[in-house]
Amino acid sequence: MEEFNLKVSPATIRNNMGALEKAGLLYQPHTSAGRIPSDSGYRIYVDRMITPSDTIASQVTQLLREQLDAKNWSIEAILRGAAQILSTLSGYITLITMPQTTSDNLRHLQLVSMEPGKIMLVVVTDSYQTQSIIMELPQVDQPLEVAVTEVISALSQDEELLEQELQILSNFLNAQLRGHALGELSTLDWSELDRKFERYANLIRKLLDDLSLRTQKPEHTRIQFSGISEVLRLPEFSQLQQVQTILHLLEDQQEKLWPLIFQTPEQEQGVSIRIGAENPLEPIQCCSLISRQYYRNKIPVGSVGMLGPTRMVYENAIALVEATADYISESLTQN
C-alpha cells in the first residue's frame, strides 16, 4: 500500500489477496512465506496485463547488428553469438535451434578419394552445414554401360587418375547442381547430360540417389544454448540438483526439449509462452519457456527460446525473443 500509493486500506488489500488466493491465482509456498503468483496467476498476467517493451526490442536489435556480422559469418556462428548476447541481457537461459535442413540448397560438393574402391562425398548447404557420405565405387560386374565399366576399372587401379577424374566430376556437378534443394537431386532430368560426361551417367545417378536418400529431414536439429552461469545467480536455481537436471536436459536430451521450442501452439508467427506446469518436461516445470520461430524465405526453419523462472520479467523477455528471431530471419536471407 505504501510503495504503490494505493488509495485503499490494508484490510481491502488483504481481502483482495485472499480472494486471489481462493481463486487459485496466488499461493503460499510454505507456512512462513508470503503469497506469490501461481502458474494460473502468471498466465492471466501475461495474457491480459503486459505489452512487450519496444525499447528493449530496439536495444537488442541494435546490439545484434553491432556485434554480429550477418553477411560474413556462418549461420552457426551467428546463432552462437546471438544466444550469448541474449542470455547476458536477460539473465536467463537462451535456446536457439539450428535451422531445419529440408529447405537447404546445395552450395558446394566435393568428391574425395578414400581407400581403394571407396570415395567420400562432402556436401555444403546454403546454411553452411556440412555432411559427408562414404560410398563404394560400382563394381565392374554391375550392369553399367561398357564405357562406365572401363572408367571405373581404370579409376580403381590408378590413384592419380582417380583424383583427377573426381575433381572433374566435382566441378561438373557443382556447375549443374548448385542452388538445387538436396531432396530433389535424385529427380533431376539428366537427358541433356553433357556428352563428355555421358560415361559417368550411372555413377552420377547413384551418387545423387544416395545423397537424396541420406539427407531426409531430421526429427530435430541441435540447439545452441547459453546462460547457465547467468541463472545460477537466481534463488530459484540455488539447488545444485535442480541445475544438474536442467543441464542434463540441455546437453543430453535435446530431442525432448526441441519440440517444445520449435512446434509452437500459438499462431504461426506468434510467441509461445509455457508457464510452469504447462511445460510437459518435469525438469523445467518450475520455469517459463518463451519461444518464437525464425524464418528463411517465409518458411519456419528454427526457433529462439528463453528459459527462466516463472517470475521472469515477461514484457522484456518476450521483446528480446521476438527481436532476436526477427534478426536471425533477416540474417538467413543474406547468407
Write the CATH fold name of the largest domain: Beta-Lactamase
Q: What would you report as the Rg, rounded to the nearest angstrom?
A: 27 Å
> Which CATH class of the largest domain is shown?
Alpha Beta
Provide the succession of SSEs: HEEHHHEEEEHHHEHHHEEEH
- The unreliable regions are 140-153
Q: Give the overall average pLDDT.
A: 82
Structural class: alpha+beta
InterPro entries: GAF-like_dom_sf, HrcA, HrcA_C, WH-like_DNA-bd_sf, WH_DNA-bd_sf, WHTH_transcript_rep_HrcA_IDD
Keywords: Repressor, Stress response, Transcription, Transcription regulation
Pfam family, one: HrcA
GO molecular function, one term: DNA binding
How would you describe this structure to a colleague?
GO terms for molecular function: DNA binding. Negative regulator of class I heat shock genes (grpE-dnaK-dnaJ and groELS operons). Prevents heat-shock induction of these operons. It comes from Lyngbya aestuarii BL J. It holds the Pfam family HrcA. The chain has 3 domains: 37 residues, no CATH class; 165 residues, 2-Layer Sandwich (Beta-Lactamase); 109 residues, Enolase-like, domain 1. With 335 residues, it is an alpha+beta fold. A 5-stranded antiparallel β-sheet has the order 7-3-10-9-8, sandwiched between helices. Strands 4-5-6 form a 3-stranded antiparallel β-sheet. The chain has a two-stranded antiparallel sheet with strand order 1-2. A hairpin with a 4-residue loop joins strand 5 and strand 6.
Task: Kindly list the characteristics that best describe this protein.
335 residues, alpha+beta, Beta-Lactamase, Enolase-like, domain 1, 3 domains, 11 helices, 10 strands, elongated, WH_DNA-bd_sf, WHTH_transcript_rep_HrcA_IDD, WH-like_DNA-bd_sf, stress response
